[in-house]
Amino acid sequence: MSIKDLHLIHPDHTFDQDRKRPAERRTIVVIALTTIMMVVEISAGIIYGSMALLADGLHMASHAVALSVSAAAYIYARRHARDRRYSFGTGKVNALGGFTGAILLALFAFFMGWKSLGRLIEPVDIVFNQAILVAVLGLTVNGVSFFILGAHDEHHHASDHGTTHHDHEDHNLKSAYLHVLADALTSILAIFALLMAKHFGYVWMDPLMGIIGMILVARWSFGLLHSTVLILLDQQGPEAIRNKIVEIMEADNDCRVVDLHLWSIGTAIYATELVIVTYKPATPEDYKARIPDDLGLVHVTIEIHPCLADEKKCAMVSPSA
Fold first, then answer.
1. Helix 51-79 and helix 205-232: axis angle, to 10°?
2. Which helix (H) or strand (E) segment is 296 a member of?
3. Strand 269-278, strand 255-266: pairing
4. pTM for the full model?
5. Close Cβ partners of 133 (under 8 Å, ≥ 6 residues apart)
6. Rounded Cα gap, residues 112 and 41, in angstroms
7. Beta strands in 39-158 (DSSP E)
8. Do 109 and 218 contact (CB within 8 A), yes or no?
9. CATH class in words for 239-316
10. Rounded-to-integer distance, Cα 65 and Cα 49, Å
11. At the topology level of CATH, where does 3-232 sit?
12. E-state strands within the chain
């Protein structure tokens, strides 16, 4: 093969990121529903004087923006999957979209809490029946959106190798899911607060529910921030997968894995680099062939060193963390 033909064997680094994912289509549908309901709830909150209802509408506004970020992340990752400027494809755009959505979630949680505190200090009159009706409508839309996104996609069972659902989740979809879940929560809190205020005169329950909603939503956003930051900073991949790689490579007692790096490059897919010391070196392809497909390793780089020391010293070499 000539030098000019080498480009023909250039490895494909798209890792299936160029296909249109079902989550992308579902997210766009939810954006449309959320935008419509956002306009209705904000208008009703202002007209009927409900802080809880207005907070729910403002949440929907933030979530419409965040969902748009999620949709844009899917589209960008798909359209640029074959761009060779990205060494390991565009899979991390997924985590970046989740990270951005988490920041927006935290900002609007803070805004909702701030406005609720203001209403505790200076209460306003509330038109209860109309406000409750709109809040119920908002909760219905949230339920439909929840179903469209497919909540079951966010809960993967542990694999045979001991990895949890956290290791395989679509963080971009999780961001969209949490925004819809936060909307549903604020709708429920708004309905509860409005009923308490209407029947028992507890008008202060309306802004109090806004504060409670702020705390819960902020907690969700910080959890998503934590998980996406770890991926964006290339934290070592799941220990169960690393241990399985070492176990497979050292099964014949002829070699030792002395260095191993595993990191996420997309949803449930990983890249790994490892250094092997062995008495009887094989080709990198031989070692790669040992790795089962269900570990999610789509890019494997292996460095091989012959063991020139005595048997005792070679056996003492242990893999790095």
1. 20
2. none
3. antiparallel
4. 0.68
5. none
6. 14
7. 87-90
8. yes
9. alpha beta
10. 25
11. Alpha-lytic protease prodomain-like (1.20.1510)
12. 87-90, 255-266, 269-278, 297-306
CB–CB of 184/78 below 8 Å?
Answer: no
Distance CA 150, CA 233 (A): 28
Spans of all domains in the chain: 3-232, 239-316
Neighbouring residues of 263: CB distance < 8 A, sequence distance ≥ 6: 234, 235, 236, 237, 270, 271, 272
Query: Which residues sit opposite 279 in a β-bridge?
Result: none
Residue 260 has pLDDT above 60, yes or no: yes
How remote is the C-alpha of 237 from its chain's centroid? Answer: 15
Amino acid at 293: D
CA distance 232 to 35: 30
pLDDT digits (tens, 9 = 90+) for 149-203: 774 444 443 334 444 444 456 777 777 778 778 778 877 887 888 888 888 888 8
pLDDT at 265 over 50: yes
Amino acid identity, position 115: K
Q: What are the φ and ψ backbone dihedral angles of 277, each rounded to 5 degrees?
A: -110, 125
